[in-house]
Write a structure and sequence with these properties.
1418 residues, mainly beta, 13-stranded mixed beta sheet
Length: 1418
């Protein structure tokens, strides 16, 4: 069994790839492994090295294949060997099909294939001589592997690839000599069918088609990997698991700690307090995984074991000291390690399937070398060590468990193991232990015999394995094969824990990828494990299993809270009272859902509301003749005819947006009259973003408001002085689009924008600057369809996103609850859109506007004539004469100043010379003379400098003229993320061949060198030109690709322009202030944030460096369509990590429905290079997310960026574009109870200038701020704010608080309040029946007694004031007296049930008692 076990473990053992290429693949988002099929055909070797006489005629040949990285010069993986065979006529037919999967899809990853000659020596040993080798490129240019290859064999051994001169070599054939007539025929292609079985085979392992891989069903064709079929997995339950360590648990751990502490003392400097620096045991873990002989078929499950004393029936021994070091205190009670929960395993019915158990200890050690603190307060580091392991093969012959308790011997030491780690070994002889794979069925008699020989017993693990399909059987052999009899219960060991319900298990996401290798591996001056685990720990030595998961500690200390602990209910650990961190949910729901992107299909307002709306006196939308525009019904489909729209005689469009009214919707926690003042922000086409002025919501005093049908509030502009402009109701914003605004060829883009785009509108509260909600309006109803003017009325829901967690449990496990995202309707917006056509003014047209280039082929203009004379400058003669005259005057003035300065300097030098001569300093006088001579020489040469300057201007003018003659301009209209394809016709003007280098001055303009990408863009743009493979030569260090041209030859150079960057400037949060001269309501516009306009030059240079052609690309920006908008709120100065789930693939625009290629080429890009944006490769059947990591900013900054999602391989155009706003706020954590008031203090710091500030909250009925009114915030001052939080819903919630400058309408500071609200303790429960559909409610009474001796006043509160009202909200009761509380239940229109909580609070809003009233409406 040991030999078979070693062979099975060795089969899956391989050399891991270097970490450098693994990180490089991760940086290129190559994290998902891909399947590849390699076909080996015929080997031809006509001129191999001659055989030595020792080999004889019985020599055979073998092909060996190994992975190699040419950049790191590193062999990795596992070498595959073919079956030895003889050569026939210098040829050898391999006919082998190899399969593998890898995520290292880099150009440096290759396969090395070596031909080896095998012979037998005279002593019987085998001799292997290399006959040559070759290299197979797997992923050239990061493309998919495909195509047949014919590889030439090279002289020498593959070890020559490790030579330093061959590092980063692309083609070894240039440096190594090939063997004449020796080549290998092979084929390489992708094999997506391997995706379902990749978990059964390690990465970077080559296997043949007839390889035995447990978990795969055999194929009748003999190739199980061609179309892999998995065996059905059978569920099993592992329960009653205990681990027994000899001679006892306490003695085993004492010996272990002594050895580790002794090793610690030997590896550190001695100190006086060395006795205080001890290593303690922090956790005991058990890894349980399923192995198929190649690898673990799934990530091993990790559970925490607890000490269990015999006779306690499974309850943990609370007095067990797990961190003690005393050796003489031997426990009289047998203690083992037990698992209190069950484990669910899924196994294949195969003999090679094994269940692997690994016992691992987590140790905690002090970090400081010399410290005077105790072990409980010293900073500590954690490290892991594997102590024992065992293996069970439940489907092997001879392993018939029959439902009995299974006992396995735990192995240790240097034996081969499937974990690949070093295992702890003790001084006792472990060779006497039986094999790990043999299962022992324990009986009572056998247990007594083993207990009598306690000193010689091995370490064991006991458990029961039962099939979940057949609960009557405890053995897979019984349940799957024989099923002869029911499993007997057997005699349980006294230390075995009782049956318990299945508890939560530990996943590797909670483990944070802890190390699998031994920590004591490198010597050093400090602790040996400090180098591997630098993270700090501050745990108590007696810490329970319920530590908060957000404590800043190592990953090994924050996982045990997921394991069920039966003591938590009884002990009531004080850790449960600590503040729990609210989790930010990883998946972000869209702010605008799919049902909200379009306006309502029908009006939800009543006829009275519509009559009130039309009677407000809004201005009509009329055409150029004064006629009312034709009304379009937004519920009917609108056909789009591009040709009809382009041929419309009214080419000028005046687009009108009229914001008419806003209908409030009652929301809990918010006053019914909120909001009172609002403003809008939106962006139309490529016009600058718009921020409107303040608008007041006016209620009608003539009509009576109804609860079921609230009336719309007419919007009226507010002047800068605060007065209401009642003469002009509503807000009207106009955009004029004509030929003077549109670029050449942009008209069709604009029409497509109207037909397909939905414009997002954000509605803000202008007082608090809080977001009320968002909506989107379809612009297709602004297409005129040949009419003079059109208009349509829209009524859309305004939605916002609320983050609400599940109700907090009384056991204080609320930190594990997930945060749910729900959409809330805040109101309805009434808006009217229109489009008025006008005749185009010919005087506004420019001559350059008529120059349009619709073709993707750029043909340079022919230069057939020479220079005809005249000025070399592009300016006219008059301008040139003026420039020359001014330049001559400047030179003359400069020359005059130079002479003046020279005369003055000469006089000073003569005076200094006289003084020096008088003092006898002859040497100084000589120096002065030389300086004077030098200055004269400089003045003499001044005219020659002027002549050189004129010559330089002339040469520069000639060069500019020649470059202008060979420059071909081409204009494109680019949008964010979209690739613009073009082909430049390059001609060699010389009569000799040239190698032309293509160089661009902007990286966004590139040459398409990949043939498949070129073919893709040609088919996409329908460009009918020829395609040439391998046309470009890419050299390392060259400024660009090179192309070889024959004399007078013309070729098409494929170019691609694509930009992912744009401006991210956002408007300051707050409404706009307009000049007083404007009487009509308008809107403020800020700078746009689309792609910047620029000019790019692509130069085609000959071998001497002179350009032979220049392509001048004129980039004109066009707007991009925003498919989705997100607004995220996050704490300031911290990274935002979010994952946004992609919609189904068939809903993405541009993707192929049901296509398989679209699923494997999902990629994302971000418009901000400082933001990390990536997506994982799609697993079949699983959704895919886009992951974002955004750096933080101070409060109240807002960061905006775009995310582009591509579904095609070459990223031609984004399928979706998301606009993401991140509002950074100061985070405040508040823990409170429903119905009870909690207090919190905040600090508001002043800035450079004094401000008048007022604080606003998103839920004013639950949050009170003091000071409540406007207060003065001096410069650099500190103002304390008092918050009174009284929530009415349990769970995790996010509320917002803004400090606003009331004069400037600017946001000073914003807070994000993270509430963790718990349910109160209920005193009594009542049940009430209220008739439904009766039109009347019900009245009840509850008796309440004052428990105090003195008189008290109590406040009555309810979490559902709309369903329950009190007869009196305040009750005063004498000491010890009782009174009745009158309850009035509102009527219900439909049957149902509701739970209402009644709070009895004191005057400080502290809850005295809580009643639960269950109301049944029937």
């Amino acid at each position: 069994m040991a030999d078979g076990r070693s062979e099975m473990f060795g089969r899956g053992r391989l050399i891991p790839p270097p970490g450098q290429i693994v990180r490089q693949a991760a940086d290129n988002f190559l994290t998902q492994s891909r399947g590849v099929q390699l076909t080996l055909g015929r080997m031809t070797a006509a001129h191999l090295p001659k055989e030595t006489p020792e080999n004889g005629p019985d020599v055979t040949y073998q092909l060996r294949v190994t992975f190699f990285d040419r950049n790191c010069q590193y062999f990795f993986g596992r070498t595959w060997r073919s079956a030895p065979q003889k050569m026939k006529n210098n040829k050898m037919s391999l006919n082998e099909i190899l399969y593998f999967h890898t995520s290292l899809r880099l150009p440096s990853t290759v396969l090395v294939l070596e031909l080896v000659a095998l012979s037998v020596k005279s002593d019987g040993s085998q001799l292997a001589l290399g006959q040559g080798f070759t290299v197979l490129d797997l992923f050239p240019n990061k493309t998919e592997p495909q195509g047949d290859r014919r590889l030439n064999l090279l002289h020498g051994s593959p070890r020559i690839l490790l030579h330093p001169q061959l590092k980063d070599t692309v083609d070894y054939g240039d440096l190594l000599k090939a063997i004449d007539g020796a080549h290998l025929e092979c084929g390489l292609k992708g094999h997506p069918s391997l995706a379902p079985m990749m978990h059964l085979l390690p990465e970077n392992v080559l296997v043949s088609k007839d390889e035995n891989i447990p978990g795969l069903a055999p194929s009748p064709t003999g190739d199980a990997l061609l179309k892999p079929v998995l065996l059905n997995m059978l569920p099993f339950t592992l329960h009653r698991l205990t681990v027994c360590l000899q001679p006892s648990l306490e003695a085993f751990e004492n010996q272990l700690l002594e050895l580790i502490n002794a090793d610690c003392q030997n590896t550190k400097q001695p100190s006086q307090d060395s006795s205080l620096q001890v290593v303690v045991i922090q956790e005991r873990r058990l890894h349980v995984g399923v192995h198929n002989g190649w690898c673990f078929i799934d990530t091993p499950q990790v559970v925490v074991l607890e000490p269990i004393s015999a006779g306690s029936k499974g309850q943990a021994e609370s007095t067990f000291k797990k961190n003690t070091q005393t050796k003489d205190s031997v426990s009289s009670v047998q203690q083992t390690l037990g698992l209190r929960s069950n484990l669910e395993l899924r196994l294949f019915n195969h003999q090679a399937i094994a269940v692997i158990f690994e016992l691992e200890y987590v140790f905690s050690a002090p970090i400081g070398r010399e410290t005077m603190l105790s072990a409980t307060s010293t900073p500590r580091a954690a490290f892991l060590q594997c102590l024992r392991w065992a293996m069970l093969c439940p489907f092997q012959e001879g392993t018939d468990l029959k439902g009995e308790e299974t006992q396995l011997v735990l192995q240790g030491g240097a034996n081969p193991n499937p974990l690949g780690v070093m295992v702890y070994s003790t001084v006792q002889i472990e060779s006497s232990a039986p094999p790990s794979g043999s299962a022992q069925v324990g009986t009572k008699k056998d247990e007594e015999t083993l207990l009598s020989k306690k000193a010689k017993l091995p370490d064991t693990v006991k458990f029961r394995l039962s099939s979940s399909l057949d609960k009557t059987s405890s053995s897979p052999k019984t349940s799957l094969r024989t099923k002869l009899e029911d499993a007997s219960g057997g005699n349980d060991s006294q230390a075995t824990p009782p049956e318990s319900p299945q508890g939560p298990k530990l996943s590797l996401s909670q483990l944070a990828a802890t190390s699998r290798y031994p920590t004591i591996s490198r010597p050093g001056p400090g602790l040996p494990w400090q180098q591997s685990f630098p993270s700090l720990l501050h745990p108590s030595l007696t810490a329970t299993a319920h530590q908060p998961s957000h404590v800043a500690c190592s990953a090994v200390s924050n996982i045990s809270h997921l394991e069920t602990d039966l003591r938590s209910v009884k002990d009531g650990s004080p850790n449960n009272e600590e503040l729990q961190e609210l989790p930010f949910h990883s998946a972000q729901a869209p702010v605008i859902t799919a049902g909200m992107t379009a306006p309502s299909s029908s009006s939800v307002s009543s006829r009275g509301s519509l009559a009130h709306l039309y009677s407000a006196g809004f201005p009509d939308i009329v055409d150029s003749r004064g006629q009312v525009a034709e009304v379009l019904d937004p519920t009917e489909p609108v056909p789009f005819d591009p040709h009809r729209e382009e041929m419309d005689p009214l080419q000028e469009n005046l687009l009108v947006f009229q914001f008419l009214a806003f209908t409030r919707k009652p929301v809990k926690g918010v006053a019914p009259e909120w909001p009172s003042n609002i403003y809008f922000t939106f962006q139309f086409y490529r016009f600058p973003p718009v921020t409107s002025q303040q608008l007041r919501l006016l209620n009608s005093s003539k009509l009576q408001q109804k609860d079921g049908d609230p009336l719309p509030c007419v919007l009226t502009a507010i002047n800068n002085d605060g007065s209401v402009n009642s003469d002009s109701p509503g807000l009207q914003v106009q955009f004029r689009v004509d030929d003077s605004f549109l670029k050449p060829g942009e008209k069709r883009w604009f029409l497509r924008y109207l037909a397909l785009h939905t414009m997002r509108i954000d509605i803000w509260d202008s007082d608090s600057l809080l977001l009320i909600g968002s909506t989107a309006i379809e612009l297709k109803y602004m297409l005129r369809h040949g009419k003079t003017a059109v208009q349509s009325l829209h009524e859309m829901d305004v939605l916002t996103t609320d983050y609400v967690g599940e109700d907090a449990l009384q056991t204080d496990h609320a930190s594990n609850n997930l945060t749910a995202v729900q959409s809330i309707v805040r109101g309805r917006l009434h808006i009217r859109t229109g489009n008025i056509g006008h005749q185009d003014d010919p005087s506004r047209r420019r001559a350059v506007d008529r120059m349009q280039s619709h073709s993707h082929i750029i043909i340079p203009r022919e230069v057939t004539c020479g220079f005809t004379g005249g000025s070399l400058s592009s300016r006219n003669i008059l301008q040139l004469n003026v420039r020359n005259t001014a330049q001559a005057q400047r030179l003359q003035v400069r020359r005059g100043r130079t002479h003046t300065n020279a005369d003055s300097g000469r006089r000073k030098l003569e005076c200094m010379a006289a003084v020096h001569q008088k003092e006898g300093k002859k040497e100084g006088f000589k120096t002065t003379k030389s300086v004077d001579r030098t200055k004269r020489l400089t003045l003499t040469r001044q005219p020659s400098v002027t002549v050189s300057y004129e010559d330089l201007n002339k040469a520069e003018g000639i060069s500019n003229m020649l470059c202008h003659a060979i420059t071909t301009p081409h204009q494109i209209f680019a949008s964010l993320g979209s690739a613009e394809y073009m082909e430049f016709v390059l001609k060699n003007p010389f009569n000799w061949p040239q190698t032309v280098t293509i160089q661009s001055d902007d990286p966004e303009l590139s040459v398409i060198t990949n043939t498949e990408e070129w073919q893709y863009f040609k088919e996409l743009t329908r460009t009918p030109t020829s395609l040439e493979k391998d046309m470009f030569n890419m050299e390392i260090g060259a400024p660009g690709p090179k192309v070889y041209l024959r004399p007078k030859e013309s070729v098409h150079i494929p170019l691609k322009y694509q930009s992912f960057l744009c401006d991210h400037n956002t408007a300051p949060q707050g409404p706009s202030f307009l000049p007083a001269s404007r009487s009509s309501p308008r809107a403020k516009k800020i700078l746009s944030n689309i792609v910047a306009a620029k000019t790019i030059k692509a130069s085609f240079k000959a071998e001497n460096g002179d350009p032979i052609a220049i392509c001048q690309l004129i980039v004109e920006p066009t707007p991009h369509v925003v498919d989705q908008t997100f607004r995220l709120y996050h704490p300031e100065l911290s990274f935002l990590k979010k994952s946004i789930r992609l919609p189904p693939w068939h809903t993405l625009s541009g993707s192929t429905v049901g296509g398989t290629d679209a699923k494997t080429h999902i990629s994302v890009r971000c418009s901000d290079p400082n933001i990390i944006c990536q997506t994982g490769m799609l697993v079949p059947g699983e959704p895919q997310d886009v992951f974002l990591k955004v750096p933080g900013s101070p409060s109240p900054n807002v960061k905006m960026f775009y995310v582009m999602v591509f579904t095609d391989e070459w990223m031609a155009a984004p399928s979706q574009i998301w606009q993401i706003y991140v509002h950074f706020m100061e985070r405040v954590d508040v823990k409170c109870v429903t119905g009870q008031r909690s207090r919190q203090s905040l600090v508001l710091r002043g800035r450079q200038a004094a401000r008048k500030v007022k604080c606003f909250s998103s839920h004013p009925q639950e949050i009170e701020v003091h000071p409540a009114g406007v207060f003065l915030l001096p410069p650099a001052a500190v103002q304390e704010l008092q918050l009174k939080v009284q929530p009415w819903r349990a769970g995790s919630r996010f509320l917002y608080l803004n400090a606003v400058d009331v004069e400037q309408r600017q946001l000073v500071t914003a807070w994000l309040l993270c509430l963790n609200v718990q349910r109160p303790v209920l005193s009594k429960a009542f049940e009430v029946c209220v008739p439904a559909n009766s039109g009347r409610g019900s009245s009840k009474k509850i008796t309440y007694t004052n428990p105090y001796k003195g008189s008290r006043t109590f406040l009555l509160r309810s979490d559902h004031p709309d369903l329950l009202q009190f007869k009196e909200d305040t009750v005063q009761i004498d000491g010890g007296e009782s009174t009745t509380i009158g309850l009035r239940f509102a009527p219900s229109r439909s049957p149902g049930a509701a739970e209402i909580l009644v709070y009895v609070n004191n005057m400080e809003e502290k809850t005295e008692e809580t009643f639960c009233v269950n109301v049944n409406y029937s």
